[in-house]
Amino acid sequence: MSAAETLEVDLVVVGAGMAGLTAGARAAEAGLSVVVIEKAPQIGGSAAISGAFLWTATSWESMRHECPDGDPAMGEALVRDFPVVVSWIRSLGIEFSEERDVIHGRGFMFDVLGYLQKAARMIEGAGGSIVLNADVDAVLMDDGAVRGARVRDGSGSFDVRAPWVLLASGGFQGHRGFMERYFGPSASTLLHRSNPWSSGDGLRLGLSAGAGLTEIMDSYYGHLVATPIPTFANNLDFVKYARAFSVHGVLMNLDGERFVDEWRGDHFNSQAADDQREGRVVLIFDEETRQGPARQAPAVGMEAYDQVADSFEIGAHIARADDLAGLAAAIAEWGYPGAALESAVAEHRTTATEAAQRPLGAGPYYAAEVRPAISFTEGGLRIDADGHVLDTAGAEIPGLLAAGADAGGTYNGGYAGGLANASVFGFRAAATVTGA
Fold this sequence. Notes:
Layout: E1 6-8, E2 11-14, H1 18-29, E3 34-37, E4 53-56, H2 60-66, H3 72-91, E5 100-102, E6 105-109, H4 112-125, E7 129-131, E8 135-142, E9 145-153, E10 156-161, E11 164-167, H5 176-183, E12 191-192, H6 201-208, E13 220-226, H7 235-240, E14 250-253, H8 266-274, E15 281-286, H9 287-291, H10 307-314, E16 318-321, H11 324-332, H12 341-354, E17 365-377, E18 388-390, E19 396-402, H13 418-434
Parallel strand pairs: 1-10, 2-3, 2-11, 3-7, 11-19, 12-17
Antiparallel strand pairs: 4-6, 5-6, 8-9, 9-10, 13-17, 14-15, 15-17, 16-17, 18-19
Helix pairs in contact: 1-4, 1-13, 3-13
């Protein structure tokens, strides 16, 4: 399009990831015209480099247990609508595995790339379009309502008028300014295990329209990863260098303190580690973990790594000793107070036993230095369960929707599936647009 032209459609979607393409495809299926604006040179967002697991909690009670600070209405909608969304994606001819346990829930491996491509074809087949390498400079406002977007691509700027705009750009983890504003000093210590294009466009556009934010803005989903590592720039690195077996070990910070109940989950451990000095922590584990979880695939269907051997190979900080005293000397060379190690392990043994978790067992013992890495932000624009973006007083902003990581509040520190959250609320946003 030329700068002088104005396009009129039913729905503008900002972001061609799981949430945006789900909403766009569902709206196109209902006969609506959709334009998707994507700043990357390809569709998919973080979904395209994910582990391809579509899963969530199996019940409302499980959701509340794992995500106690999450928005109750959004959590309820996620659990209730997840089977509906799975059935719809299946109906498009997308291949799924058998249902299996995933973390604390149930779900499926599925052909995520095939699904994203299918959704894009549905949008284009209904007369819509997907504009790549383009930015949305502003949402168009008319008497307090959002009525389209101003888009800029290689040919210039043009307006797309629509009664609905959906913000689904994937979160703000790639925007240094937003990260520093909402995460504070810890933002500088976080590694970035996400696609580089999720840089806060949805948050920026929502704020410009008067959107309110969730109460918790510094929660995120991520993992602890080996450190130092030679590269950390693609999805193979993101999976290979993650140390999700932290749930089976003892975590200690630079001050010699154990700072988290490790068995809650590696995503909790990552967030807790981000609050520690320099974002540096050491993971202590035993031979049983080394021979078991540290050799297993991150999830069923994914490639397995010998993560201890891998750490040695890439030059990450990893040490082995027959006893804790020997391990203490090793971590002292990395700057940790070795004298505090045995106390941290003793505290873990007591606390783990009381919580009916496995304490550290027999040696030899291992120490691995790890750092937190963010996959996507969990705080963001405040929405209701139908996807309406709410203003600072809690009222709907007419014409403005959000889904996926642009919409905060579902988990707020917990986690029950990124692809599930994106697809369900993209699906629900489409229902709002179509009136279904």
